[in-house]
Each structure stands twice: as C-alpha cells, then as structure tokens.
Design brief:
The chain has 49 residues and is of the alpha+beta class. The protein has 1 helix and 4 strands, in the order βαβββ.
Length: 49
C-alpha cells in the first residue's frame, strides 16, 4: 500500500478538511499519515522522513 503524509493546520476547520482528504486517499488505497510535525521532517532521495 502506498502512503502519503498530510500536514495541515487544525484551526479554522483544517482538521475537517484533513479528514476529508484522508478519506479520499483511503478510497484510493493510499494510507494517510496525519499529525506530521514538519519541524522534525527531512528529505532525501528516498522521500521525506
């Protein structure tokens, strides 16, 4: 199964939008990873970790 990270603000309804996006990804057999903290993320040739 493929995976996709989602980073969104949760204020102003962002959490509702994030859930809708996650539901759409699951319908396409893509596992959403939510709650990412971009302060701790880095990218390399393998992707974003």
């Amino acid at each position: 199964m493929r995976r996709a990270g989602i980073w969104m603000y949760t204020n102003g309804g962002g959490d509702v939008i994030q859930q809708k996006i996650a539901d759409g990804l699951r319908e396409r057999e893509i596992e959403p990873i939510m709650g990412l903290d971009m302060r701790f993320a880095y990218g390399d040739s393998q992707g974003v970790l």
